[in-house]
Amino acid sequence: MRISVSVDPQAPGEPTTRRRALAVFARCTIAGLAGHLAVPGALRAQPRARTPRIGILSSASASTPGLILPALRDGLREAGHIDGQTIVFEVRHAEVRPERLPALAADLVRLNVDVIVTTGDAEVRAARAATAAIPIVMAVSGDPVRAGYVESLARPGGNVTGLSFLSPDLSAKLLELLKEAVPTVSRVAVLWNAANPVKALDYQDAERAARSLHLHLRSVEVRRTEDFDGAFAAIARDRPHALVVLVDEFVNQHPKLIGDFVTSRGLPAIAADRRHSAAGVLLSYGPSLPALARRAAGYVDRILKGEKPANLPVEQPTTFDLVVNLRTAQALGITLPPGILGRADEVIR
């Protein structure tokens, strides 16, 4: 659009003052119209706001994603973040093959996601190795200080924060509950993922607790799904009185495998995840993973709003659930003490 305003400064009979006023008016009109016409184009040139992307790194299978991802989605929805609208999830499943985690973490870094949420210790290690810049939120971790993920619980100091599973105290508590439920036990097998350095720390804590409880432990290690058959054969040969399962994201993919084994062997067992008691293990005691995941959603929300993970203290669970499988107790011929049943948050009958 072309605008032309002409003022003849030599028009006969025009007073000088009036000619000057018309010239000023013409210049102002042209500038005002030009500015008005330019605004829509400027608005059209504004870039669209980028939708934040949340990377999820998990050892689980996509077909059985576990308890954390659905609860995380729920927690973010409650905070006003809707998948596909206000945020986008980039989910990477290792399909129960932890060796795939480093490549999956690197893929999330290449996508330049805004936050990476991890669902276990192996995932934290893979994400930390892939980036020191992108914030990492631990939905679940063992002992992040002893594992070196953070400087302290109060001030993480790097790009990692989130939730701790309180592993050190938990190992001792599992043994205490097992001894209370079955006072005659003295030889106990401990099944754990030896590919997870945090579980090695947990086993050391269990050894210390075992001495005060007069229990003798036998370490039974797995690293891959294929190792379970050999582990079960070793337990059968050793004939312990009971089994403790030190859980992590990898072990938690196999509750039925473990439940079927202890049921077939008539072996009282305890784990820190309720999925194992639902699968036939006598007892489970530990924090709720869905509750931890919902709290992890709060970290993601705060980071998206500009807070730094270095300044967000690592939280610890404050409540733990005790689940008793009474069917298993009856099948094993075990009469559980009233104190155990009275404290149970859930009894499977």
Would you write up a description of this structure?
Helices cover 43% and strands 16% of the residues. The chain has helices at 16-45, 68-78, 101-110, 121-130, 167-181, 197-213, 228-238, 255-265, 274-278, 289-304, 326-332, 338-343; strands spanning 53-58, 88-93, 115-118, 136-138, 160-162, 187-193, 216-222, 242-245, 269-271, 283-286, 321-325, 346-348. The protein is elongated and about 65 Å long.
Helix run count: 12
Shape: elongated
Low-pLDDT windows of residues: 1-15, 33-39
Q: Work out the helicity level.
A: 40-55%
What's the mean pLDDT score?
88
Quickly give the structural class: alpha/beta
The biggest beta sheet is recorded as: 7 strands, mixed
Note the gap between the termini: 82 Å
Question: What integer value in Å does the Rg equal?
Answer: 31 Å
The run of helices and strands is HEHEHEHEEHEHEHEHEHEHEHHE
Strand content: 15-25%
Strand order of the largest sheet: 7-6-8-9-10-11-12
Describe how the helices and strands are arranged.
Elements: H1 16-45, E1 53-58, H2 68-78, E2 88-93, H3 101-110, E3 115-118, H4 121-130, E4 136-138, E5 160-162, H5 167-181, E6 187-193, H6 197-213, E7 216-222, H7 228-238, E8 242-245, H8 255-265, E9 269-271, H9 274-278, E10 283-286, H10 289-304, E11 321-325, H11 326-332, H12 338-343, E12 346-348
Parallel strand pairs: 1-2, 1-3, 3-4, 4-5, 6-7, 6-8, 8-9, 9-10, 11-12
Antiparallel strand pairs: 10-11
